[in-house]
Amino acid sequence: MKTIKIAGVPEHFNMPWHLAINSGAFEALEINLQWTNIPEGTGKMCQMLRNGETDIAVILTEGIVKDIVGGNPSKIVQVYVESPLIWGIHVAAKSKYQTLSDLENTKVAISRIGSGSQLMAYVNAENQGWQTDNLQFEIVDTIDGAAEALTNGTADYFMWERFMTKPLVDKGIFRRIADCPTPWPCFVIAVRDEVLEKSPETIKSILEIINKTTLEFKNIPSIAQDLAKTYHQKPDDINEWLSLTEWSRKQLDADMLNKVQNQLLGLSLIDKKGTFAAIVKAL
Question: pTM for this structure?
Answer without folding.
Answer: 0.93
